[in-house]
Design a protein that fits this description.
alpha+beta, 4 helices, three-stranded antiparallel β-sheet
Length: 94
């Protein structure tokens, strides 16, 4: 089930992970590995990242995909959610 509480937990976990390792963007495999480590979402050993890809696909199909997540060809990229907000606030002043 897709709801805002699930997405907030996922975003918060991934934002904390990116700050901890010093990255601004990660792919779906790395993200799903971290979500599995924290117990938020299981990962598929045969196809790493598949549960998160399926979840993101549902969000995309229902127009609920956050602005910090994008799909290029078949790969998903997740940026730090607070970074996107800061850039959007600064751009109108330029």
């Amino acid at each position: 089930m897709i709801n805002s509480l699930n997405m907030e937990k996922i975003q918060s976990c991934l934002d904390d992970y990116m700050v901890r390792i010093g990255k601004v963007e990660i792919n779906e495999i790395e993200a799903n590995r971290e979500l599995a480590r924290t117990g938020i979402m299981t990962d598929d050993m045969e196809s790493p990242g598949k549960p998160l890809r399926n979840f993101l696909r549902k969000l995309r199909d229902t127009n609920l995909l956050p602005k910090n997540i994008r799909q290029i060809n078949c790969a998903w990229f997740i940026k730090h959610s607070k970074l996107v907000t800061k850039v959007q606030q600064i751009l109108p002043f330029l």
